[in-house]
Amino acid sequence: MPTTPEPHSGVPADPARPGAPEVPSTPVPPTAVGHRPSPQEVRRWRRFLADERAEAAVYRDLASRRTGEERDILLALAEAERRHEQHWLDLLGEDAGRPLRGDWRTRTLGWLARRFGGVFVLALAQRAEARSTYATDADATPRMAADERIHEEVVRGLATRGRNRMSGTFRAAVFGANDGLVSNLALILGIGASGASNSTVLLSGLAGLLAGALSMGAGEYVSVRSQRELLDASTPSPQASAALPDLDVDANELALVYRARGMAPAEAEEHAADVLATYTQQTVIAPPPGIDEHETHGTAMGAAVSSFLFFASGALIPVVPYLLGMTGFLAVGVAALLVGIALLATGATVGLLSGTSPLTRALRQIAIGFGAAAATYALGLVFGATVG
């Protein structure tokens, strides 16, 4: 797809040749028609040029870590960025100069792509495409602006595949870490506020860590196992598919299967007749749940282990000051600081993966976590005063 500016008019037909067709003109950079771009324009164009080159390199690096269709898609995106690069080269002409470094975010994305690849980098690339300013830039063509919008959706689709593959285990890990951070910080603050001794707070924190980790792991195992069993229960029986050749074609009871699965009576009759007419040994009554549905839930053991380990690691953080011998408000302050940093990290990670603002998610995470801890601390003060 051409991305250079569209010509406003063609070269007029030769008057000496009546009826001669117009010859389309080739877009000419401003520097070639006597108009020198301003220094500000040159700087802006060179910056766009550097960013396009950097983005193309990111897609090539991601493609080098992929195979099959995903690799082809990423290489096609790199080729589209190369066309955009050529647009800025045409505008700059002899002012292109030595290549500049791309935007720091794009360079960081390239570094991550070369070393890791994966869904995190795709999520970052999705946000990078969404930041495009071509729609409001007078020197970028409408086609380039449209390209960038479509690129965002292409990368979103690739990132969604990765999210589906990791979502079950990742969800358990994020929720486990967040629950460990918040619940154990709240537990420690509540007990500490009640006036309990330092050793009591420490033992309570360790007990909360172990009990919470075991509970989270067991809960995740049961939850994911139940979800997968529900999916398996929806899969048609192989014996039912093997019985298709012996069905009474006139009665066509196969249509009842499709009506039970939500089809309208006429549509079910038509589909059943088509299945019977084209039956082979590979024919199944209805397709099983898609692979993506199983991938979305993950494995029960993987989710349980992730939840256990991440809850334990999260719950350990507010206990660290007490393990180091700190007491009183110093221990509380250090525990809150460490938990706050961890909550910011988990919130930003979820924001990156979901394609939303990492800062917004991080601040939301810390607000919820500290809100719960503050409420428990206040209750500890009340109970401590009452019991005391």
Shape assignment: flat
State the total count of DSSP E strands.
0
* Distance from first to last alpha carbon: 78 Å
The number of helices is: 14
Order of helix and strand elements from N to C terminus: HHHHHHHHHHHHHH
Helical content class:
over 70%
Strand percentage, roughly? under 5%
Total discrete domains: 3
Mean pLDDT: 77
Largest sheet, in brief, is: none
Catalogue the unreliable spans.
1-34, 290-296
Rounded Rg = 31 Å
Strand-pairing-aware structural class: mainly alpha
GO cellular component, one term: endomembrane system
Subcellular location: Endomembrane system
Keywords: Membrane, Transmembrane, Transmembrane helix
Main location: membrane
Question: What report would you give on this structure?
Answer:
The protein is mainly alpha-helical and 388 residues long. It folds into 3 domains: 39-140, no CATH class; 167-222 and 305-385; 236-278, no CATH class. Helices cover 71% and strands 0% of the residues. It is built from 14 helices and no strands. The longest helix has 52 residues, at 142-193. It is flat. The N and C termini lie far apart (78 Å).
